[in-house]
# Entry
Amino acid sequence: MIANDAEKFKKVISHAKEYGYIFQSSEIYDGLSAVYDYGPYGALLKNNIKEYWWKAMVQMHENIVGLDSAILMHPTTWKASGHVDAFSDPLIDNKDSKKRYRADVLIEEFLAKQDEKIDKEVEKAKKRFENFDETMFRTTNGRVLEIAAKREAVHTRFVKALNDNNLDELKQIIIDCEIVDPISGTRNWTDVRQFNLMFSTSFGAASDSSDVVYLRPETAQGIFVNFLNVQKTTRQKIPFGIAQIGKAFRNEIVARQFIFRMREFEQMEMQFFVRPGEEMNYYNYWKKTRMLWHRALGTDASMLQFHDHDKVAHYANAAVDIEFKFPFGFKELEGIHSRTNFDLSRHTEFSGKKLQYFDPELNENYIPYVVETSIGCDRMFLAMMCNAYDEEGVGEETRVVLRLPAILAPIKVAVLPLIKKDGLPEKAMEIFNTLKFNHQCYYEEKDSIGKRYRRMDAIGTPYCITVDHQTLEDNTVTIRERDSMQQERIAIADVLQIVNAKVDINTVLKQLAD
Ligand code: GAP
# Structure
């Protein structure tokens, strides 16, 4: 059984490897830090996440179209976007452990610890008093008020330091809060420096500095530079969106927590172009719509929350995260940003090409404003794995089950002959060959049926079809449901229709349209 969140996370990581979901990149050479490969089931799960996102965006909206732009872009793109000058994190080194940290993350962790301290006081008091009034306790208890006041003071300094880009003040906060390096346990810190996160490489045969290109740190810029191409060729009228799924690269200072923070990852981004002045309406619309997308997968409301940014990025006038409750706490899963007309204006300035829209209703030209939704595919993958991983006692044993939403499960249905003889494998293969046109299926005849069911539970397969001796007599099979382990006898003639209905992505997409 799972003792706590830290143990759960360890189990998710080893499960992902053991069952062919995720491997460390170049593992035989001891791996490459924060780069991962997706195994056979991981690749399927990832594709299903992308399909759900793409359909929800492009197929379900008459005014959103897709794009697949290149990773390498003209270097001026990143000058214009501000990434060359401003896409950096404040880093700090501990002189004893020689470890490098993000200064802002150290402070955020300190703030989170203060919240935990308050929660502990509340828990202690809850046990002590009957008829406990939590709100009253939080607003009147001396110890709680003391911690909360200290937290608030640090938070205010922190937000100001971030907004002023004041690196000395960030270091001072770390010193004043007596934050220690978790490895060396010392407070022997260097100054805080800015570190640009873009990877660069040289373009073509000559390698002088004029040939430097960057691996894109976000897919969004491929959308902005193609704004006119897409708008003209698809005859879209504002408001309309451009959606894209693709790789992005960031030389993260501290890459931790498995696939949560990677150096090579995939983003699913959509830029929605709107009339100036209408951006906040669409910002609120996309906040609601994106939360619905997550909830339609069956993720419990308590696992998701909005978090407004303390400091908005250099291009935004409003920003909110959708956070997921990972085993290591609530963390960003998706960002929704009101990006103003910053990007299109800057590309207009740097390229000399007018990235404008003529609005026939207003009879005027303007640079559209943009509302962006941006989610990391890998992070969504991790959220789904953490949400799905479960262990439960079944008789004497522990059953490990991945309760993935059926539409995301890598294998939709396993077809299993009860035993490896008496014509059962042939009959099972017949069913497999009928289902495979519609669904990713799995066939296996080795091991006892119980062991095969457990393996399918661990992979997250929502349905198992079992062919037994009765099948040969009356053309029926059993269908077993992963979560309840309930079995039902159904006619082979109905199998396809029943499985179709159970794993149909449209039932989920319809929830978004209601
Ligand atoms: N175009 C806006 C943009 O890139 P972001 O908040 O930096 O905004 C958007 O990134 C999303 O991309 C995040 O919410 C996260 O899911 C994902 N992401 C960002 N950095 C990542 C990393 N190093 N590893 C994995 N996913 C990452």
